[in-house]
Write a structure and sequence with these properties.
The chain folds into 3 domains: 24-141 and 279-360, Spore Coat Polysaccharide Biosynthesis Protein SpsA, Chain A (Alpha-Beta Complex); 144-214 and 219-263, no CATH class; 371-466. Strands 1, 2, 3, 4, 5, 6, 16, 19, 20 and 21 form a 10-stranded mixed beta sheet that branches. Strands 8, 9, 10, 12 and 15 form a 5-stranded antiparallel beta sheet that branches. The protein contains 10 helices and 21 strands. The two termini are 45 Å apart. The protein is α+β, with helices and mostly antiparallel strands and 471 residues long. Helix 6 (335-345) runs parallel beside helix 7, helix 7 runs antiparallel to helix 8 (391-419) and helix 7 (371-388) runs parallel beside helix 9 (426-455). A hairpin with a 2-residue loop joins strand 8 and strand 9 (177-178).
Length: 471
């Protein structure tokens, strides 16, 4: 195991060792992540900083997978804060942040691996510029991807569904490895539908998808075969194409069929961006800047951003204490956007630093589009806007949510009557749960809204000039 540059820990007021006092604390929240922690912590141990320059704290959220035993055995230089319950990303970080005794804190997901210069470069702007409250780095997805295009004739499913659809994708395999949930679908498909073996995604008629094929740097190391299990609403052609003339074409039918794309060694692979700072859209939705874009250097210039990413964000301790760190009630998702909004309301700047690079295993700790994911994303967006946004934006978003949920439910009932099929009730019940949970937290959020307004040095309307139009 590499010698940890951040260990053994040095207390800021303890000069007995002769080492410089730690300037920052790296905080990692862990829940049943024993399989994720070694690459993350080994990456921290390789940071190009002097010994004792930082300390590492892992907050363990009541894991039952041997995480604490792993840390005690293999990483004795890590301080562990053991929580009796799972307090989520927000509450877990707060357990460490509220006892912080270094000038800076840096947040790191347990499913992210920092490159050697990450910590030094994410901290440097805070050391130089006292008006900065936070710095966020470049987060790329961990694997290397094959960039593919997809083309098939489109169709309209009917008057109650305005989407322009292409084909259904059930499964993607690289060799004999199922990578369906690791493919980056953002520019090609709609959200997943169905369950079990019947789970699929509708594609658009044309677009791009990125298939993870290799965990090591460089171009493709060996010949591979990628298998797509697909079907369509009728008989029609499908073409999937990659670099250097690699492609597969075939006729689809209504039954599932496997299309195999052969890709030779040496084919060019790409890095893909997860986050290069955050944005909030004019409708109140948070988004990752640069999400699922191939990294060609288009975000290699430092700049101010509206929000930072909780994975890899460095925070000035005085700024974090001033705004009260994270909101425990958020548990997970939107907690970093809420914190960033509150930092900006007090006049603190937030900088994007492209040289601070993390490689992130996307959705390793939670699954996108799962009921748990949808619940926290939907509810916390409404909570954030209630606390931070102008009355116009917050009221519009909160009122629109139940109206949209009702419209979706009515449409599902009509489609069920037309097809004589019982509509799935769980998605609609989930939206009811979202609204019920939001209403149960409304009173404390309104109290926090008034407190934020009293202490703000930048008006809400001025902050909303940062909001971006939907791309």
């Amino acid at each position: 195991m590499p010698v940890p540059h951040g260990a053994p820990m040095a207390s800021p007021d303890d000069g007995a060792t002769g080492r410089p006092a730690a300037r920052t604390t790296v905080v990692i929240v862990n829940y049943n992540g024993a399989h994720l922690l070694p690459p993350c912590l080994d990456g921290l141990a390789r940071q190009d900083l002097p010994e004792g320059a930082f300390r590492t704290v892992v907050v363990d959220n009541a894991s039952v997978d041997g995480s604490r035993e792993l840390l005690a055995r293999d990483y004795p230089w890590v301080e562990v804060i053991a929580s009796r319950t799972n307090t989520g990303f927000a509450g877990g970080n707060n357990l460490a942040l509220r006892r912080l005794d270094t000038p800076y804190a840096v947040l790191l997901n347990n499913d992210a691996v920092p490159e050697p210069g990450w910590l030094r470069t994410v901290l440097a702007p805070l050391e130089r510029e006292p008006a900065l409250g936070a710095v966020t780095g470049k987060v790329v997805f961990a694997p290397r991807f094959l960039r593919l295009t997809w083309q098939t004739p489109g169709f309209s499913p009917g008057p109650h569904d305005p989407r322009d659809l292409g084909a259904r994708v059930y499964r993607v395999e690289v060799g004999d490895r199922d990578v369906t949930d690791k493919v980056l679908w953002e520019r090609l498909t709609f959200g997943p539908e169905g369950t079990g073996e019947g789970r699929f995604r509708w594609t658009k008629p044309g677009g791009e998808l990125l298939v993870p094929v290799q965990d090591t740097p460089g171009d493709l190391a060996e010949d591979i075969k990628i298998t797509f299990r697909v079907a369509a609403e009728t008989v029609k052609p499908l073409r999937i194409a990659g670099p250097n003339g690699t492609e597969v074409q075939d006729e689809l039918g209504t039954e599932r069929t496997d299309l195999v794309l052969a890709v030779p060694a040496g084919t060019a692979l790409v890095d893909v961006i997860n986050n290069v700072g955050g944005i909030v859209l004019t409708g109140g939705y948070g988004a990752d800047r640069g999400f699922q874009e191939v990294d060609t250097g288009q975000y290699d210039t430092p700049c101010e951003v509206f929000t930072g990413c909780g994975n890899g964000m460095a925070i000035r301790a005085t700024a974090g204490r001033e705004v009260g760190w994270f909101d425990d009630d958020f548990f997970m998702y939107y907690e970093d956007t809420d914190l960033s909004w509150r930092l900006r309301s007090r006049g603190w700047g937030i900088r994007y630093e492209p040289s601070a690079v993390l490689r992130h295993v996307h959705s390793a700790s939670s699954v996108e589009w799962s009921p748990r994911w949808v619940f926290h994303v939907d509810r916390n967006r409404l909570l954030m806007l209630t606390k931070d946004a102008s009355a116009r934006l917050a009221t519009s978003a909160v009122l629109r949510y139940p109206l949209t949920a009702t419209s979706i439910f009515v449409r599902a009932l009509r489609e069920g009557l037309a097809t004589r099929r019982r509509p799935a009730l769980r998605p609609h019940l989930l939206r009811v749960r979202v609204m019920a949970s939001y209403l149960s937290l409304l009173a404390p959020m309104l109290v926090r809204r008034r407190r934020i307004a009293r202490r703000a040095t930048v008006a809400r309307d001025e902050l909303e000039r940062w909001l971006a139009d939907r791309r």
